[in-house]
Design goal:
Chain lengths: 436, 331
């Protein structure tokens, strides 16, 4: 019967979890990957001491004090059933009796106890489906250790008896999502994925569905940094409201990428109507007006000129992309330049793709000219193309939905029978989607 | 806590948004699922302000036999802006409601909330039909022949043996059987466990139902658990238990059927039983896994304690290859 039910796509990211069914164009649920548990219960759980303290400062003190003591005694009451996930968790954590945890750190699952309960609640409560009736597509970050895959499979098959499981690499799904763009003519799984979320930006080269692990690069600039950059600009100017939320709203509504900063400054000075106003509604229902000025184009600019915001990371994004592709095998480089795909919320700025394409083209053309000069032969040229599309924000989830609604999807999954026959290590390899 | 709710949160959210005053119409095309092979499809086929919600249920044929259409019509026909497409539902689905948002008007917020919750309870309403039918039959029977007050052990009287058993094949091999009689309504679930260990958990879990009744909650319906053996009430329907099914019998007493409100409450809870049951078995397993992980990590700690601290200098001196080269020590 599970052949007729839609597959479930679960994309658990560091910040947000995207849940939904195959065939839909947007995830049914998007909420924080957070779980709120009873504050006292967390002390008896075996939490690794080496973990960075992600609890709120007050609870981490109390829990670390307690966990040093009687570790052997687990309370045998209902505490393990008392938890909330997602938005409800954030709500519950405001009270005194719950503490908030983020089971995923840097894209990888760190706390399996919490993750198991998070899944349990998201499947039954939010998606309302019986896992025995559905196939599941989960996502994983690039370079996820195979042990993590095995753990995931163990939970999905042994706790939930799910009908079938496929674990896909996020970057590959992001590539698949780009097929909706009109610029994409051949549906290949080769390309460079720029995945920029809230915490970190990855540049990932993918060749025929395989991630080239040795060439992946991370950039410590992402959505959060842009927001805090806007916030500092607002503070420097002495605006009346400089909260993080205001900065975030300004980022989403007003920011865009400009082709040239100097010209843009001039444009702003000669056309005062470029300055925008943002209305903040305060708790007391009074309205505050915040001026939005140069940060409209300066904020996204930190991808291209990081020195305006940070002092420790100074390589612009186009250079990083170029380095990544240069570090990949030579026979796929042309295709990697030709298919650069954006994914994640922080790539949503207007003209982000166009600017990246232009800067990258300049870099590449310079190199091509240099080699032509040195060798004296004519190069056939390298095409650089950055692909933006409408689904960028939830690209990974959307790619999963796209692939999981195909008829062949279920033949790529492993079923419970396969798992019992071969054991957890079966999930170390998944056959790739054959590309039409 | 871990109570399953019979409202579908996604349907609820969709309509809560759609009926909000500041709603900007968007085109929708969404598939939403629910337990027991129920699928909803929310779409806007013609214009953005007209939402079509369709439901497909695995056992629609059985439900239709027991008058689900009449029930749904009575539930939703009081809203003039909802068009019930009972005869020609959307292709591939069994029942459709076409909601015109432009025509929608409510007396107050309460009425709006009520409609939203009625829409999100569409599945429950569908499954309610056979239960209501059985409850009505019980009302007739109990009038004809009032329950014998001397029958304190709840023995079956002979008059009821010929009563029709309402059957819902809600999953492929699993069914719900409902038998009305003059002093009770018996509901029997048959369920299959894909995993043998699940069956063991289920035994413990079901034992808890009967124990709870003994201990404190005397108002709860009586629960009888049959493994492999087919209950007498339905032995004429199911000849052989070939699929290793488990049967769970609920006996609903008059107090569970007294008023309209109590009846709906009973239906809401009992029709979710199978999902609830399987859900909790899974929770038990999650909990066991947690404890196992904890055990392993505490044992590893003990083992690590037993490890001898070797002096690093000493180690460096010891580890040499045949040619006399040393290993590079890593932390």
């Amino acid at each position: 019967m599970s052949s007729t039910t839609p597959a479930v796509i679960m994309d658990n990211g560091t910040g947000l979890t995207k849940l939904g069914f195959a065939g839909n164009d947007s995830p049914s649920w998007v909420f924080p990957t957070a779980i709120a548990t009873r504050a006292s219960a967390s002390s008896s759980k075996p939490s690794a001491p080496s973990k960075p303290s992600f609890l709120s400062s007050s609870t981490s003190n109390s829990s670390s004090k307690l966990s040093g003591g009687n570790l052997s005694s687990i309370k045998r009451d209902m505490e393990d059933l008392d938890f909330y996930i997602g938005d409800e968790a954030l709500e519950a954590a405001k009270g005194p009796s719950y503490s908030l945890h983020y089971p995923i750190r840097h894209g990888q699952i760190e706390n399996w106890d919490q993750m198991e309960r998070f899944w349990e609640n998201s499947i039954f409560k939010y998606l309302k489906c019986e896992p025995e009736d559905h196939y599941f597509l989960l996502t994983e970050p690039p370079l996820n250790p195979p042990e993590n895959r095995e753990n995931t499979a163990e939970i999905m098959f042994e706790s939930f008896n799910c009908a079938g499981l496929y674990i896909a690499v996020q970057a590959v799904l992001a590539l698949a999502a780009s097929w909706t763009s009109s610029k994409v003519t051949d549906r290949s799984l080769t390309g460079t994925v720029i995945d920029s979320g809230d915490g970190v930006t990855h540049v990932i080269p993918v060749a025929e569905g395989y991630v080239i692990g040795s060439a992946i690069k991370n950039i410590p600039i992402a959505g959060r940094d842009i927001t805090s950059f806007i916030q500092t600009l607002l503070r420097d100017r002495g605006e009346k409201d400089t909260s993080l939320k205001t900065a975030e709203q300004i980022k989403q509504e007003f920011c865009y990428v400009c082709p040239d900063i100097v010209k843009e400054f001039n444009k702003f000075d000669s056309h005062p109507d470029m300055f925008a106003k943002y209305m903040v509604e305060t708790v007391s229902k009074s309205k505050i007006e915040v001026d939005v000025g140069y940060e409209r184009f300066l904020a996204p600019e930190i991808f291209f000129n990081p020195e305006i915001a940070s002092s420790d990371f100074l390589t612009p994004l186009p250079t990083i992309v170029d380095q990544v592709i240069q570090a990949s095998p030579i026979d796929v480089r042309k295709n990697l330049y030709k298919n650069i795909v954006l994914s994640g919320g922080s790539t949503m700025f207007k003209d982000f793709g166009r600017r990246l394409q232009r800067d990258l083209k300049t870099l590449v053309n310079e190199r091509v000219q240099q080699s032509e000069r040195l060798s004296g032969t004519k190069s056939s040229g390298v095409a650089v193309q950055v692909i933006s599309h409408k689904r960028q924000k939830n690209a990974v989830w959307f790619g999963g939905s796209l692939l999981a609604q195909t008829g062949e999807f279920k033949s790529y999954c492993y079923t419970k029978q396969d798992y019992e026959e071969y054991g957890p290590n079966i999930v170390r390899n998944f056959s790739l989607f054959s590309v039409p | 806590m871990l109570q399953l709710e019979s409202t579908n949160l996604l349907v609820q959210e969709t309509f809560a948004n759609a009926f909000a005053t500041d709603y900007t119409p968007v085109s929708l095309d969404r598939t939403i699922t629910d337990f027991d092979f129920t699928t909803y499809h929310v779409s806007t086929p013609e214009t953005k302000t007209k939402i079509l919600i369709s439901i497909s249920i695995n056992c629609w044929k059985d439900l239709a036999k027991y008058g689900v259409l009449d029930l749904l019509t009575s539930k939703y026909s009081k809203y003039p802006f909802i068009q019930i497409l009972a005869d020609q539902p959307e292709a591939g689905y069994h029942f459709s409601l076409y909601i015109d948002l432009e025509q929608a008007s409510f007396e107050n917020e309460e009425a709006k909330k009520e409609l939203i919750s009625e829409l999100s309870l569409l599945k429950r309403n569908c499954f309610a039909a056979p239960f209501l039918k059985a409850f009505d039959r019980y009302a007739v029977l109990s009038k004809e022949q009032p329950a014998d007050p001397n029958n304190i052990y709840g023995e079956d009287s002979h008059h009821n043996t010929n009563e029709e058993v309402l059957t819902i094949n809600y999953r492929d091999l699993e069914s719900i059987y409902i038998t009305p009689s003059n002093d009770r309504v018996t509901v029997i679930f048959s369920t299959i466990f894909k995993d043998d260990t699940d069956q063991v958990f289920s035994k413990v879990f079901l034992q808890e139902f009967s124990d709870a009744r003994k201990r404190s909650i005397q108002k709860a319906p009586q629960v009888i658990n049959w493994h492999k053996e087919i209950p007498l009430e339905i032995r004429h329907l199911e000849k052989e238990n070939t699929d290793n099914k488990t049967y769970i019998t609920f006996v609903l007493f008059p107090r569970h059927l007294s008023t309209e409100e109590v009846r709906w409450n009973t239906i809401t809870h009992i029709q979710l039983f199978r999902s609830y049951f399987h859900y909790h078995i899974k929770i038990v397993k999650c909990y066991l896994h947690q404890r196992m992980r904890f055990r392993v990590s505490s044992f590893t700690k003990i083992l690590n304690r037993a490890r001898r601290d070797v002096d690093e200098e000493e180690m460096r001196a010891e580890r040499k290859t045949a040619s006399g080269r040393r290993f590079e020590m890593r932390a």
